[in-house]
Design brief:
10 helices, about 230 residues, Four Helix Bundle (Hemerythrin (Met), subunit A), mainly alpha, 2 strands, Arc Repressor Mutant, subunit A
Amino acid sequence: MTSNGQVSGASLGGLAKTSLREQALDQLRNAVTSGEIAPGTRLVETELSAALGISRGTLREALRQLQQEGLVEAGDRGRLTVRTLTDAEILDMFEVRAALEGLAAGVVSARPDRAALVAKLQIALDALEDARGSINDMVEVDLAFHRLLCELTGNTTLVRTWEALAGSIRMSIMFAGTDRAVANMSVPRHQQVVDAIATGDPHIARNAVDDHMREAAQNLLNRNQVEPRSA
């Protein structure tokens, strides 16, 4: 502490970039959204804390965050299970996404600095085209494009609302299977949204997002279609 009663930054030790809670949260989130921990699985604190090497208190903090993200839900006696998304929930979620991202597209398309903002979206789209690695990594690049669209509005409430859906979005994509997940990350489909925003017509931009989300939701719902069995 300095002579004037203020705390000197030099006297404080550096904090770790990630806490045990954040590390546990990342591992659990990845396990749930990738399907490693299947929908409907009951989450037993003693087993998870032992597997992760953390205290049950730290585990509970991570699980509370996953519950807020919509990845796990409380059942009888407060027991937590991995959430199972129904077709109706997926449709509802994509309707909300369409409303949020449609609003974002309309706002960005009407901005006087639209060309600069479109250039940023194009860079994010190029990153999606170049994305390699695990399907989880590719999904994150895809979500980064959609998050950026919301962020470019400068509307923090819109961004926070979109972020609240991020966990469920990941789940719906991953549980649909790799082929459908990759299909939804098609660069030409996303390019249509960028091109619509570039027109400067908010109506065209919003309609492009509506079409994008409608097609994406239908693609995910098709995961439930079962191929005919051979005799």
